[in-house]
Amino acid sequence: MNPTTLNPGLEHTATLQVTTDKTALSMGSGDMPVLATPAMIALMENAAMLAVAPAMQQGDTTVGSMMHATHDAPSAVGATVTATARLTAVEGRKLTFDIQAREGDMVIGTATHVRYIVGRDRFLAKLNAR
Asked: Is 71 labeled as catalytic in the residue annotation?
């Protein structure tokens, strides 16, 4: 791992189509046929992971640790939602992102997200040793 090669400003936008399996009704996080908050959060995490993935050394990845998010507007089945993650801070292995989710021009959610750089093999070995 060499976090010094990571610089604030790295950015990625991830996209999803709202389908019935991504609704609050289907995921059990609510009882309405709108984009589920957990699905929006997963999209946000994906954008953050992909923002720094090209800068990872062989064998390293990032794992999510904290998400402070708001989900401010609903999105219907069929809508296209994007999440843009921007790396704002690098502190050793700790990476902090600002993320914005949008449906077209409308902001539907925002987040501050923390990820940590980990070695894949070591991370999985610790899991398997439990």
From this structure: yes
Spot the catalytic one: 13, 37, 61, 96. 37
Domain 3-128 matching CATH 2.40.50.140: the answer reads: no
Is 37 tagged catalytic?
A: yes
pTM: 0.94
Q: How much is the pLDDT for 1?
A: 44
What long-range pairs does 4-8 form, CB within 8 A, spacing at least 24?
A: 5/55, 6/52, 6/55, 6/87, 6/90, 6/95, 7/87, 7/90, 8/86, 8/87, 8/88, 8/89, 8/90
